[in-house]
Structure formats: C-alpha cells, structure tokens
Amino acid sequence: MTDKADTKLQIADLTKSFGSLLALDNLNLDVQAGEFIALVGPSGCGKTTLLRILAGLEEPDLGGIWIDGREVAGPGSDRAVVFQADCLLPWRSVWHNTVIGLEINGRLDARNREYAMSLLELVGLKGFEKYYPWQLSGGMRQRVNLARALAVQPEVLLMDEPFSALDAQTREIMQVELLRIWEQGKKTVLFITHQIDEAVFLADKVVVLGRRPGRIREVLPVTLPRPRPLEIKRTAEFGHLVDTIWNLIEQDVRQSISEENARLEIGAD
Amino acid sequence: MTIATDGAVPPAGTAPTPSRPGTSRRRRNVPTSPARQKLISVASVVGGLLIWELLGRFVVSNSLFLATPLQAMAELARMTASGELQYHVWVSGQEFIYGFLIASIAGIAIGLAMASSRAANAALGPWVAGLYATPIIAIAPLVILWAGIGIWSKVIVVISVVIFPVIINTEAGIRSTDKALVEAIRSFGASRTQLFTKVMLPSALPFILAGLRLGIGRGLIGVVVGELFGARAGVGFVILQSAEVFNMPRLFAGVAVLAAAGIALMALCRAAETKLVPWNRS
Predict the structure, then answer these.
(1) Which of A25, A166, A230, B93 fits a disulfide with A213 by CB distance 3.0 to 4.6 angstroms?
(2) For A152, which residue in chain B has the nearest alpha carbon?
(3) Distance from CA of A105 to the nearest CA of B (A)
(4) Number of CB atoms found within 10 A of residue B27's CB
C-alpha cells in the first residue's frame, strides 16, 4: 500500500440497514487528497445515507470511516456539508451564517474571521455580508452555504445535491463557479448528484452506485482536462462518458421508477 | 404534538400564502391601491362614528341608554383635565404590565421546558391544554376573595389568562423548528445546548411573539373583568361605577380608553415583530 500516505478519506466495509431494508452493503472507497469524487446513482441507492454517515449524522451498522488514518465518529469540523435545500439560518445575515461553524467550534478568532471574509470574496459575495438569506437569490444562498462549509477548513467537503433546487442556467453557472473555487484550494470533495452530466463535468472520478442494496458498481476516471469550460459538455468525449454511466444505471433507474409507481398505487388504495 | 398544535397561532406573516403571479394579475382588474385602502378604512371609521352620533342624538335620545361619541370625548377631556383619567390608567396599566411581564417570562420558561423535556411535557401538558380551553376568567371573583381588592388580585387574573397562549405558542414554536436546519448545524458538531440557543430558540421567536400578541387582548380583558369584581380604582372600576349610576358618557370614555390601549399595544407588538423577526415578513 504505497499510496496509503495520500489517502485522505477511507471508507471501509460500510454497512447500514434500516429495519429489513439494506441501504448500504459493505461499501469500500478510498479517496485521495485533493480528489474530486462524484457519486451518482438512482434513487434508493443509498447515496444520501452514505453522506449522512460521512457527516456523522447517522451511525453505520458495520465498518467505518477514516480521515488521514484516524477513525471518525459523530459530526465534526474535519468534515463539512453543503446541503441540498438551502439550510441557512434565516435570522442570521450572510456573514453570521458564514461563520456559524467557527462559532460552534469556538474558533472565531481574528485569523479565521479574515479567512471567512476572503471566502465570501471567493464565492463572489463581498459586499453582501449584511444581507439576509431572504434577500438573496437561490444561487447566492448556495454560495453562502459553500462559504459556510469551507470556513471551518474541513479536510473533506461533502456536497449533497447542492444545486438540485436551482434552475438549469444557475446550476450550470454554479458548477463552473464550484470548479473555480475548488481549483484555488484543491479540497477533497465528495459530491453527490443524480445528474450524470454534472458528475462528469465536475469530478476526477465518478463513482456509480447500484441500488438495493447500495454498493459500488463502477468507478470511472474522468480524463477531461482542467480547467474545464462549460463548452466541454458538448465534446464527444464528454458525451461518451455520460452515455457509459447512463448505460450502467439505466436498468436500476427503470426499476426504481416502476417500484415508485407500484408504491404510489398501493398508497392510493 | 396534540397539545402543541391545539390553539397555537401561526406567527404573523406566515399565514397568508404568497399569491401566485396568476392570481395577482387577475386582481389587477379591480385595483385597490394601498392609499385607497387606507382611505376606505378612515371613511369607514368616521362614517361609523357619525351614524352612532346621529343615532344617539335623534333615535336613542335617552342619555341613560347611549352616549354619543362627542359626549364621550368631552367626558374624556374633562377627566384628563382633572387628572382622574391618568390615575385610573396608571392603576390598570400597572396591573396589566406586572401580570403580562410575569406571564410572559413564566410562560416562555414553561413552554421551553415542555418542548425540551418529555417528562415536563407529560406532566404539564394536560393542565395547559385543559386550562387554556377553560374560560379561566370565571374564577376572577374567587381570586378577588383570596387576594383582596388591591392590585395583586388583578395581576393574578391577568397572569392566568395570558400565560396559556404564551406556553402553547412557545412549545409549538420550538417543536416546529425545521429539522433540516437542526441537522445542518449539528453537522458542524453543535452540542444540544448550542442547537437549542442557536437554532431552535430563534426559530421559535415568531411563534413566541404571536403568543404574546394573543396575550395582550386576553390580558386587557383580565384587567377589566378583575376590576369589575372588586377594585378601588382602574379603568374597569370607572366603567362599573358609571354603569351603576347610568353615566353613559363616562362609561363610553372608559371603553374608549381600553380600545385605544388595545390598538396601541397591538401596534407596539407588530413593530417589535418587524424589528425582531424581519426574516418572517417577506
């Protein structure tokens, strides 16, 4: 194991079930430092469960997570999550939302304040410190969410479909922005999405999860050069990658849709 | 949850759902601008008073049954000039303020306890639910009997009517905290205490303020009813005294003071809401 030194995040034998439903089955994944990993899979593949375990919001039944070789349990500021819906506190201004992680960990000193301020500038929200979430657009709110997560200087950044609530145009802009921000610090990122093109555009590696139980089907390296402009989405190589992943999960997606329909019909009775 | 939702009042600003673009376009056919709405309100009040004045002068001209607005205003001016009004308002005001403050602090504390401890909820829940539904004002004569006709009997009556909506709204407010927000902050490693002070409490604030707003109206009723059953001074006492001697202008002057107090306190409460919970407006 020569690359052990570079392994930032190690997920080993992770198993989790809810009652009789096996959500994650013996999942193993090593993530290198500075790597951008995207996790895709149909609904019911356990990707959100995986992220919740990584964030410490859920306990695994078996297995564990190691960051820099240390096992982690429970939430902590070595990981930070950018959530799906915008989870900003409505009574806090942009600034006070950005620093809440620091505040909670008792790390709100002058140096970290300055760092948080530089992050707001990085995400393009300089001058908006005093604004409240309800005064911002959806895209701006997710920028604050990103700044809030980065402010605690996590070892690993976890992102749970952060752009899914945004409209198509804003989403594309945010993808480009996220890459720009990521290039600055090269954080280790685990990005969960159900959009294959988003995964391919952003990631170094796309991890494709299968459903029932959730386990890794395939790990595909994305060899597209960086920095990646939006136009890269129209290249043949990009399209080929998207097709490959789609073929991998198509069967699962169809099955999940028919199961969903069956459940709705049962519910209607 | 059974207790929490019963009778809990949603905070101001959350109740009306934002109108969809489609509906607002349809409404544009019948334009009622804010200025026009204000004009209609003023006209309605002035018109109402005018009808009342005319009724009092020409229809129910017996001054034993009805005083006109002008007579009431004249009486009000006379009472103000003699300093009598200020004295009664001061007495009732003290009763209201002491009762309201004690009920607010205790009510918020009990509501928080009930929201954070299952045991406290199980123990207090049935009492709060039962007493909130009971017209507790009915025990006012008993309170006067126990605590005398001084200020404290009225304070107790005010507390007993104000505290329950405050408890119920505080508890409901804490319970209705968005789970996603709690999780987001918990993911940073927040402790239970931090989650409570940084997420749940601010999130419950609009509910708590709505509970206090409900308490204002109930508290004013408490003061007056308490005074009706036994007092030496106060606005309710003035009303009772005037009714006994058929002094209608004086009675209506007392009622006008109560109305003014209610309107002023409500406006104060709304101003506090806009200042303290600006995010709840949008």
Answers:
(1) A25
(2) B188
(3) 7
(4) 11
